[in-house]
Amino acid sequence: MLLLIALMTSRSIAAEIKLVNFFTEHCVQCHGPDEQESGVRLDQSINLLLADTRLMEKIVHVVEDGEMPPEEELQPPDNLIDEIIPILEDRIISQRSPNPLKRLTRFEYTNTLSDLFGVEFDLSHLLPPDHVEEGFDKFGDSQIMSPHQLMAYLETARFVAERILPLSKPETQTWDFDGKYFHGSKNFATGGGGDYLEDDEYVLTGFRPYRSNLHLSIDPEEHDQFAIPAFGKYRLEVSVRSDQSKEGEIIGINLGDGRHPTSFKTIKRIALPHRANHFETELTLKLGDQLAFTFDSARIPGKSLKKQEHKGPSLRFSRVKIVGPLEGSWPTKAMKAIVPNPDMSPEELVDHLAIMLTRNELPSEDRTAYLNIARAKLELTGSKPATARSILIALLTSPHFLYKSESQELTAIQQAHRLSYFLWNSIPDPELLNASKLGQLREDPREQVERMLMDPKTDRFIEDFTRQWLQRDKVSDFGPDVRVFKNVRRMTVDSMSREGRELFRYMLENGLSMELFIDSDFVMANDRLARFYGLPPVEGDNFVPVELPADSERGGLVAQAGFLKLTSTDFATSPIHRGSWILKNLYNMKINPPADILINEPDIRGTTTVREAILKHQELESCSRCHSKIDPLGFALEYYDPVGRKRNEYRHVEELVAEDDETVFTKKIKFTKAPIEANMTLPNGREVSDMVSLKNALIEDKEKIIKGLIEKLISYAHGREVTVADRPYVNDVFDSISEEEFSLRAAIHAIVDHPAFRKR
Amino acid sequence: MKRRTFLAGSGISIMLPRMESLGQVVETNSNRRLLTIVNHLSFYQPKLIPEQEGGFSQTPTLLNELSEHLEDLKIFSGLDNPAVQNGFGHTPCVGILSGYFNKLQRKNRLSIDQAIADRIGGETRFKSLVFQAGENLNFSQISWDKHGLPVKQIDSPRKIFNLLFQVDENAKAQKQVLAEDRSILDTVLSQAQSMEKRLNHTDRAKLDEYMTSVREVEQTVKRRAYWADRSKPQSDYKIEEFDRKSVDDYVSTLLDLAVLALESDSTRAVTVQIPFWEGFKEPELSGNYHDLSHHGQKPEKIEKLMMLERGILSRISDSLAKMKNRTVGESTLFDQTTTLLTASMGSANSHNFDDLPALVFDSRIQTPGHWRKQDAPMSNLYLGLLQLFAPKQEHFGESTNAFEILA
């Protein structure tokens, strides 16, 4: 034993000496007593240096990538690098900081309640959104708890408990609205939105939700809006057809007062197939909700303040029937699940609900307080449902429910939770819990993972992971400016934002290789996107795989319009955004703008020197370390415009002084053409000049990119950043799926099957 | 732009009584109030800040909008926020009132409005009221409590109005709810305490945030329970419905509500932000506020921007005038209120977070005028303000000394 320790110590001392020598020989000249480039100094005590994990990680990256020592300096031999890196890696692994405690995100909280009680809640009006600037909102590091967050939990818990345990049975009612009850903006002094009543049909011609929507009044003579009378599920049966249209149209269902739409919110979009004249849908609505319909795929924004005859496509509504609240049985399923037996004592009720919500028994020291709440309520009201409500509110606000507590080695219950919040974004179901308790997740999780992936709840993972990874929700943040991009409409942009998700889904469902994220001979497209890409027509709003013509440059994430638009502003592309997006999201690199440098926003509109302006970055050494990687990737994509269309030259846009007119879009625009110069050299000497050469360069980096994607998946599953300390985990997963052509589905299996998945 | 007429008479018919102490330390016994107004997109400073220092002689165009109040005004220019990290778009705006922003840190630091509210807000229905800049939470969380946690900000004029004046028709049920909330909070707090014993160091820090939050919410619930028993102030103010946000509609509504909140003594500290991301759209202008603020030094854009800024300043001037017209107790509301108007950027055109202007309105100011304080930390101004409410305080953020506000 003593010998072993002595041996280990001498080994680690030898390693430290090796490092000190390496630093002295190759680094200290610029990172030492005389100079401290980038504020780094490597001639300090080795133990002090090694304790700085972030610094060690940085050193691993720059040495591995050949960024340091700089080209012009003496280069360390490869075999020395191969010795140094593992020493650093071991040290980083040994001192990794623990995965911090995580609370439920709003999405997880909402799904958990839906699964527990079988009610689809929308809690966005109650719970604050989870903000995240890097990585995923599941990271414990980035999650804040604050008094107003906690107050929101308390209020949400009460809202939920009162809705799922109503004290009396709500009566199902039917409302039937026709043209007499339809109202739109034509009735308002705020200016017309181009909608009108014609022959008992209400006609929407443009998209301008704040101005142009169809809403329902309770009295033909009055303008008071119809409002939902009680929480519950409602069925909508709507008679509506499109006119002068050659394709399916999209209808928006919105909540908010259609007369004064200050807080209008789209809750659902309905794809109305071509020639259809009817749709039905079910929505969970709450007391006071007001419904309004919009024409989301309209060709015109609905801008005219003048009366003009409308010629293009329109939506014509003739009838809206609303039935609800719909209750399948009474007492409801949720009521029966919460109070399975009316004779339950407060003790039984507390124990039952604690297990239901936290999948665990309450620690005995906590149980008493719940019992006190239950007994007090029962005494006050004599009602079991009211008592159950109070227990629920307390449990839903408790740290046992809100936080995902994890021990160093996950218990069976914790393993089930991790897996379930990974693939379902929700609490494990009884089958998964039992399987985990029987040790199945430890021995061979394949069967459970397959079962879970077949479940529609996996849709939440697909939706949420791709939303955050690809920033799909930001695709429509800017523009497109209708004056510049005349034919790019709202629903085309909406389709762009769905493409990444649909590709991910298709690959997951069909066990396809993650290499397809780099390039593929097909794309996922619906009617609008296929037309936008100039592909053979696709019918309908659903995405299907479409084979690409041989000469097409599409295929792969970097050729998706959604990504190309996301990384552009209203008028102009941004090579820096595009390049750093690729490094961050495909390679999973950490890239931050330097915190100590003021980044001025130059006005580059109308100039032809974007390239020159940006290349200035590379002249300064502090900038060039990142920009020599970022800029070539971004510039190679300059042949794609701000909405992701191929272009052969720049079209710079300049806004001229507005003319006085009563409409909003009167700003005059001046276009200047300029040639594109896209070729640049990557740090490894490889030249990239366009989409094709860029994809080739990415394919050459296949291993790095696939590892980057594996890291994204792991960080999502574990709720923490993936660092150098996770290399063994990432490498194992990579190796094990290499035999399965790097299938996305296999990657998920391999991650869950890895021993690290069962650790904190 | 049309000028709104003042509301006839006083908008308030019942003033709130003071709350008997809930055990909070009240450092001052006066009725002093604080109104903080932050304009994230700043003002076009060449037309706001006089060239000369000292008393006002010639006033630039934008300052003209405030001409009624020059005798009560001190302008400080050229201020800096040394602990606010630059270079992340609008995000550093979150640090304007705390003087602090670090992208890697999730928490901020106590903001000046809350530092003062902690001292003067013990007896009113709300310790403070903070209005959000439109609906964009990301960049407009500017109020931070003493734990560095975000303070709830309210995002719509309707919600603010209801909070102030809506009478709860279900008062009895509401009281039961509040009583139950208190026992639930007790329960979850003791649960967190027993849970904490089993946790490691990092997790404890996380759970501490939870426990801190529970304790703060307990205070809020206590406060609510106290006020649930008492009648609410009433107002004949009609809140306007608007579907497009013009300066006129939006800023004046927010400021009206701020004045009503102070006048009804619902709170002593109100923080207002001028909405910026959605931007204003004026019928006479093409382009929205945020767009125009990136004027690229183009004269025609600056001219349009100035129209909006003049609109904003004239609404602020109206509100100050309104406060001078309202009598509360023995003096006017204005006499009892210190108003701070500042901006989180020096210029929105270049996104710089230094060279900041600050305008302080207070009827006790003896030497009105302009003081250039090139590169002085904003915290010096904040310390000066804080000392108006709590004379013994000696530090705030990066303060190196305290500005003279009144002398």
Describe the overall structure.
The complex is a heterodimer of chains A (760) and B (407). By secondary structure, chain A is an alpha+beta fold. Among the domains of chain A are: 2-94, no CATH class; 173-324, Galactose-binding domain-like (Jelly Rolls, Sandwich), CATH 2.60.120; 484-700, no CATH class. Helix content of chain A is 41%, strand content 13%. Chain A is built from 26 helices and 19 strands. In chain A, strand 18 and strand 19 (687-688) form a beta hairpin. In chain A, helix 3 (53-64) packs antiparallel against helix 4 and helix 9 (364-381) runs antiparallel to helix 10. The longest helix of chain A has 25 residues, at 2-26. In chain B, strand 7 and strand 8 form a beta hairpin. Mean pLDDT of chain B is 84; it is low at 1-10 and 21-28. The longest helix of chain B has 28 residues, at 201-228. Chain B is globular. Chain B has helices at 61-64, 112-120, 137-140, 157-165, 171-196, 201-228, 247-263, 289-293, 299-325, 378-389, and strands at 33-39, 73-79, 83-84, 100-101, 129-130, 269-274, 327-328, 331-332, 337-343, 356-361, 369-372. At the A-B interface, helix 6, helix 9, helix 10 and helix 11 of A face helix 5 and helix 6 of B.
List the helices and strands and how they pair.
The complex is a heterodimer of chains A (760) and B (407).
Chain A: H1 2-26, H2 46-51, H3 53-64, H4 78-94, E1 102-103, H5 106-117, H6 147-164, E2 173-178, E3 182-183, E4 196-198, E5 201-204, E6 214-216, E7 232-243, E8 249-255, E9 265-272, E10 278-285, E11 291-295, E12 314-324, H7 333-338, H8 346-358, H9 364-381, H10 384-397, H11 399-402, E13 403-404, H12 412-423, H13 430-437, H14 440-443, H15 446-454, H16 459-470, H17 490-509, E14 522-525, H18 527-533, E15 544-547, H19 561-566, H20 575-585, H21 610-619, H22 621-635, E16 649-655, E17 669-675, E18 680-681, E19 687-688, H23 691-700, H24 702-718, H25 727-738, H26 744-753
Helix pairs in contact in A: 3-4, 6-10, 8-9, 8-10, 9-10, 12-13, 16-17, 20-22, 21-22, 24-25, 25-26
Chain B: E1 33-39, H1 61-64, E2 73-79, E3 83-84, E4 100-101, H2 112-120, E5 129-130, H3 137-140, H4 157-165, H5 171-196, H6 201-228, H7 247-263, E6 269-274, H8 289-293, H9 299-325, E7 327-328, E8 331-332, E9 337-343, E10 356-361, E11 369-372, H10 378-389
Parallel strand pairs in B: 1-6, 1-9, 2-11, 3-4, 5-6
Antiparallel strand pairs in B: 2-10, 7-8, 9-10
